[in-house]
Every structure is written in structure tokens, then in C-alpha cells.
Amino acid sequence: MRYFRIYADKKNLQPRFPGWYSLMRPGIWRHGQIYEALEARTYLKVELEEEMELMDIISSPCFMVSKEFANLIRLYRPGIRFKQIALLDERGRKTVPYLVPNLPEIECLDEGSVLSRDRSMIEKGILCGSKLKEEPLFLLKGTEGNHVMASLAFVESAYRREVRGMGIEEFMVR
Fold first, then answer.
1. For 50, what's the count of Cα atoms within 13 Å in the CB-facing half-sphere?
2. How far are the Cα atoms of 35, 97, 107 from residue 130, in angstroms, in the given order?
3. CA terminus-to-terminus distance, the chain
4. For residues 99 and 63, what is the distance between their CA atoms, to the nearest angstrom?
């Protein structure tokens, strides 16, 4: 069993979200809380660099994916719910749709894992294999960040579909 943290690769520019904190109440920053606070369809102003190519994954301020990536998630998690976010770039005059998945949270970090003081960064990630139950995609519970974990099969499928902008980091499984 192999699992990876997936995230937006830092080599690619990410949009800036100047209106995000007016959209969310203070204290809401975990993915599950954000998902519940969002409307079924939300419009959000963003700032994009000129000729910026948007990737299939945006990690921050919350985990959101393109329609193509959402279709891959549906293959592995049938019945998953999504909320829509339309990113509005007024300067470039374009609107780009993204989807926020309602991923389950699983508390499966092994006590041998090493986290930063504020629990937002995972320096050494070890997962408890017995708690994973062959889950293809989930949020890591017990941390202060939005750490999305995926099985090897899911990651391989993403690469076969040429998902743009996805970075991965392998975690040990005990």
C-alpha cells in the first residue's frame, strides 16, 4: 500500500485570492469547514498574472480542482459531492470554473510522524495502514493544514490523464 500527499506544484504560479477572507468568516480555514461555508455556487475575484496557465489543482486557500480532475475523483469516489467556485479575473476578463470536493477526513497519522509546532507542516509523514481501508482519496485529519492524500492507483491515473500542476510527496505506511 502506497500513499502520497498531492498538492499544487510550487513551480506553477497560483492565482491570488484578495477577496477570500471577505468570503469566509474568521477562524474558518480547514477544508471541511470551508466546504460547509461555501454556497453551492460561489463567485470569487482572483488576480491572475498575464498569460498565466491555470492548473488542474489549486491547494490554497482550499483544495479545488478543474472539471477534468473532478471527473477522475468521481471515478474513484462515486457519489462524492462538489461545490462550484467560479474564479473571476476582472483585469484579464475571464472566468474559470473550479470544483471543491467534499473529501472524507481520516485520522491515520502514526505517532512516529514529525509535524511542525503549529501542526500545519508535515516534516516526516507516516500513516497507519490499518486505518486507511484502501481509501483512494481523503483529507488527513489531525493536522492544521489541508493535506490531501491519494493512493498510488489514483496518482498513477492522474499522471496517465496528464493532470497539470500536481505535486506529490510519498508517505510511509506502517
1. 0
2. 27, 37, 11
3. 9
4. 9
Minimal CA–CA distance to 57: which of 90, 15, 93?
Answer: 15
Order of strands across the sheet that contains 126-127: 105-106, 137-140, 148-151, 3-8, 166-173, 126-127
Report the C-alpha gap between 108 and 93 in whole angstroms: 43
Sequence letter at residue 139 = L
Q: Which residues neighbour 41 within 8 Å (Cβ) at sequence distance 6 or greater?
A: 83, 84, 86
SS3 172: strand
Is 123 within 8 Å of 114 (Cβ atoms)?
yes
Q: Determine the Cα–Cα distance for residues 169 and 147; give it in Å rounded to an integer.
A: 11
pLDDT, position 62 = 84
pLDDT digits (tens, 9 = 90+) for 7-56: 998 888 788 888 777 676 665 556 667 778 778 888 888 887 777 788 99
Assessment of whether the complete model's pTM goes beyond 0.85: yes
Q: What is the distance between the alpha carbons of residues 106 and 140, in angstroms, rounded to a whole number? A: 6
Residue with C-alpha cell 491555470?
Answer: 54
